[in-house]
Design a protein that fits this description.
The radius of gyration is 26 Å and the shape is elongated. The strands form 3 sheets. It has a 7-stranded mixed β-sheet. The chain has a two-stranded antiparallel sheet with strand order 6-7. It has 368 residues and is α+β, with helices and mostly antiparallel strands. Among the domains are: 111 residues, Beta Polymerase, domain 2 (2-Layer Sandwich); 99 residues, no CATH class. The chain is 50% helix and 10% strand. 33% of the residues are buried. It contains 18 helices and 11 strands.
Length: 368
């Protein structure tokens, strides 16, 4: 039995990037042997085991044979006789098909190091075309490593185009598509992800509501997201909202139809609802109050904060208005319901009177 470090850990180690997780392939072992050594099996479709101490994933070397359409129609073989080279051949890109043994020696049968040095994303074999999910993965890697100068090999681009033209992307589940989108959002260059899919005429297949994508869209998004703090807890939500705020949703329910989490779809809806008011030439106290009402900002101030984080990146004008919104909310929040009740107001009158007092407080921002 031999154990090799594989995939992303080897790739990122060679690129000098932080290693976030370590995956291993095990050659010459059976599931029973792994369990006897204390490994915990977690995979159902194929044997994947957790190391008894480190909990790193260890997968038995395997080969795959395509059966049917889509990315789940595979028959896998995990016989102990399967070699490391056979296992690496089934991987998507050459840069992900490099292994390292326990002594640190690299095993690179498909010239992944050469492609790393050349900054090229190239498929390992024609088996790439059997899994439509790999179209999204390559778009994601192209985005992740764009700042390092990586490009997609022309042959791989052509293969991806054939997969799109053959309708393979239609077999992907909405949940799996979203996982790739969210991973690309985390990487911080979602505009490149969109550029790649748009170049394949595949963006509308992944996100039907986003039926246009231009170079200007890409440049504007990059300019906006570059102003965000990637360490901020709201980075993913704000970058998603900025990415999609120009899209015409046309009745699409992102949560139900595309399995996009509520926090993301709400961030997008709030930004789209707020922008007409933020851009309004009639920027007055009543406009601010209308915006606060649309965002339910008195009860859920975090929605206002999140919207402003995104909106303020769009222009200096909107940044100034978001600063004003913050001040206005602070003034309005000082209005105390108990004091209004003490004045004798009851039921619906309480909210009406509080809105009057909040309006008076906020109007001070427009005086002088």
């Amino acid at each position: 039995m031999k154990i090799y470090l594989v995939g992303g850990a080897v790739r990122d180690q060679l690129l000098g990037r932080p290693i976030l997780e370590r995956d291993y392939v095990v050659v010459g072992a059976t599931p029973e042997q792994m369990q006897q050594l204390g490994y915990q099996q977690v995979g159902k479709d194929f044997p994947v085991f957790l190391h008894p101490e480190s909990k790193d994933e260890h997968a038995l070397a395997r080969t795959e044979r395509k059966q049917g359409q889509g990315y789940t129609g595979f028959i896998c073989d995990f016989a102990p006789s399967i070699t490391l080279e056979e296992d690496l051949m089934r991987r998507d890109l050459t840069v992900n098909a490099i292994a390292q043994d326990e002594d640190g020696t690299l095993i690179d049968p498909y010239h992944g190091q050469q492609d790393l040095n050349a900054r090229v994303l190239r498929h390992v074999s024609d088996a790439f075309g059997e899994d439509p999910l790999r179209v999204l993965r390559v778009a994601r890697f192209a985005a992740r490593y764009h700042h390092l100068g990586f490009t997609i090999a022309p042959q791989t681009q052509s293969l991806m185009q054939r997969m799109v033209d053959d309708g393979e992307l239609a077999t992907l589940t909405k949940e799996r598509v979203w996982q790739e989108i969210e991973k690309s959002l985390k990487d911080g260059a979602i505009e490149v992800f969109s550029d790649v899919l748009a170049s394949l005429n595949a963006l509308s297949l992944v996100m039907p509501w986003q039926n246009t994508w231009t170079t200007d869209d890409s440049q504007r998004l990059k300019a906006c997201t570059s102003k965000l703090d990637k360490q901020d807890d709201d980075y993913l939500l704000t970058s998603f909202a900025l990415w999609q705020h120009r899209a015409q949703l046309n009745g699409y329910n992102l949560e139900q139809d595309f399995k996009i989490p509520k926090a993301y779809s709400e961030a997008l809806r709030d930004l789209q609802a707020a922008l007409p008011l933020l851009h309004s030439d009639d920027w007055q106290t009543h406009t601010i109050m209308q915006l606060f009402s649309a965002l339910d900002a008195w009860r859920r101030p975090q929605r206002l904060i999140l919207m402003c984080k995104a909106a303020r990146t769009l222009s200096d004008k909107l940044a100034q208005r978001c600063d004003m919104l913050t001040q206005a909310h602070r003034l309005g929040a000082k209005v105390n319901a108990q004091e209004v009740i003490a004045l004798g107001f009851k039921g619906p009158q309480i909210k009406t009177e509080m809105d009057k007092l909040k309006t008076q407080a906020i109007s001070a921002l427009f005086e002088g």
